[in-house]
Structure prediction request, 556 residues.
Amino acid sequence: MIGVLGAARRRVPHRGDDRGSMAMLLLVTLLGTLLGGLLVPIIVSQDHTTRFDTTRVHALDAAQAGIDVVVGKIRNATGSTTTSDGKPTGDASGLPCGPFSGNAVSNGVSSYYVEILYYTKDPVANPSATPMICAKNYGPYDAAVNSRTPRYACIIATGVDEGTVPAVTTATNTGCTTASGSYGTGANNASKGRTLVTTYVFTTDDTNFSGGVIRIFPDASGNQYCLDAGSATPVAGSSVTLQMCSTANPPAQRQTFAYRSDLSIQLVSSASATSSGLCLDAATPHATGNPMYLATCSALGSAQPRQQWSIDDNSHLQGAKSDGSNIDGFCINASGQAAGIVPTLQPCAGSVTDTHQTWVPSPSTGAGMAGATNKQLVNFYLFANCLDVTGQNPASTFLILYTCKQNPSPSNVAWNQKFTPNPALGTDKTTPPTPAELVTTSNGTRYCLTSPMSAGGYVTVQSGSAACPSTVPASGSGARWTIYRIKDASLNDLPYDSKYVIKDANGLCLGLGPNSDLLNGTYVKAVVTPCDGSTSQKWNADPSTGKSALQNTTEK
Prediction:
């Protein structure tokens, strides 16, 4: 028994005996080495991922910094004049053209590259819109519509972190919706960059500019002469003369007149908060030889007949009868075309191209009394012009935009500028888009405005029960038009691009033909074209006031 117990004791380790620990240590070390070998790639990979993600965040910040820089440059392009609330107005010639590049942070690690495309209409809503050209110290320009005023700027900004952006060169993007980034080269597992595309909306007010030149139809010399007040601040009784037309934009103040809704013609610069300004006048009663001069305007809406001037069928400026019931047969006449000639009243004579009595107000003078209440279709782009059956001839192969005709009694305006919707639209502009025919009547015969149903084709008027029925024409008819005001079919607000348009049965919009195709070198022809939201396709429209903002921001 003693021998057995002694053997057992020898096999049980005594306290403090380290035998067996070395094996355990070796096992733990081996396991640690194996686990370490497995974790190192994971740690390295996680470090690379974290670094890549970090540089992506920094690249996005750099792209946003580029947008902020360009928006600052745009907002800093101010002119010398101010708005009514004292804020500086924009100067299109000072708008930046780009492209631009720079450092997003002071240590130069993150950088940005930005391109800018200017548009006259929303480039996202109109993906096929062509950007304006842009030249340094001149700014953007759209030759198609002869405009230097953009409404939108598409900003394409690429940011990179620990990389490089392209050198500042000519912009490569030609469209907003198709824009792509100009990426740099990522280094040391850094992102190659990120691109943001956003649309900057300019603060604009497209209320038609109140004031423009009034030009006499040019004679064989081709020189352009306009009514001139002599100065921007003449005194009452000052003569009005012919002078070479101002080519400034806006025109010289001494030639800037507004054709007001009461048929008075006001020198814009003469008006103030305390004065109604000076208006064209002639001694009363009207008589042959009365010279034109400036006299104090009556309050708007209460013009005296002696200051009411109506554009008649020949675009002559004809005076009003003393009781304001009609025009009186005396027209503003220029005895010749030379600087300093004082226009006088003469018996109305001559045609639409008369070089003594035919006057062509610029669109910005205003539409006078014309508008929907008088059944006239005033074009919003050519704001002094209305849709007109050419030469009062229903057989004409095209219609034109002619100076809006006026009369102290609107019912006396000629039939060829009056288009009545059937069914009637009413005065509530919140009604949904309305299918209708647009009817003008001459000598008891109804004529319907008719679309050629093909883009670029001239609109005409047609008569007869088939071409101009008494009810709304069937779908597919050239006489069927849909008139849009401010609501869609579900009575939701339409975007401004879709308001105040008139579409034919093929969805083409009533608008203006090219400036290369004019009647008598002056009057634009009416056509149907694909709808693009431009003001040239708006009729009897209210203005739209836009506030500056960034919209439609996306990452490419």
